[in-house]
Amino acid sequence: MQRLLVLVRHGQSEWNLENLFTGLKDPDLTALGMEEARAAGRALKAKGFSFDRAYTSNLVRAQHTLTLILAELGQQDIPTIRDEALNERDYGDLSGLNKDEARAKWGDEQVRLWRRSYEVRPPGGESLKDTIARVLPYYCEEILPHLLRGERILVSAHGNSLRALLMVLDRLTPETILSAEIATGAALIYRLSADSTVESKQDLEPQAV
Question: Does the model's pTM come out above 0.90?
Answer without folding.
Answer: yes
